[in-house]
Amino acid sequence: MKFPRLVPSKIKRHGLLLDRPASDPLPCKTCDGACCRAFPSVPISWPEYERLHALGATRLHFSLTGRHLLLIENGCEFLADGRCAIYPDRPDVCRRFICEEC
C-alpha cells in the first residue's frame, strides 16, 4: 500500500517597506513574527538606539560612521511567542514594514 507523500506547506510572503507607518495593524496581529526573523539587522536612529537600550536591548550595534543597528538575525530579541514585546516602542522601519501572503 502506498501512502501519499506529505510535503509541509510554506506560506509565501511578500514584504513592503512603506514611506510612512502602516495604518492597519491587522497583518501584525495574524502573523507569527516572520519579518522579525527574516533579516540580519534593522537600521535605527540614535533616539531609537537610546530607547531600545533603555528597554534592555542587548543586540545593538553602535556606529560612529554609519547607521546604528538592532541585530535581529535568528530572531529579534523582543520577539516573544510570535509577537513583538515592544510593539508600541518598535523602531520606525518596523512600523513601516508590512508583510502580505502571496
From TrEMBL:
Pfam families: CxxCxxCC
Full protein name: YkgJ family cysteine cluster protein
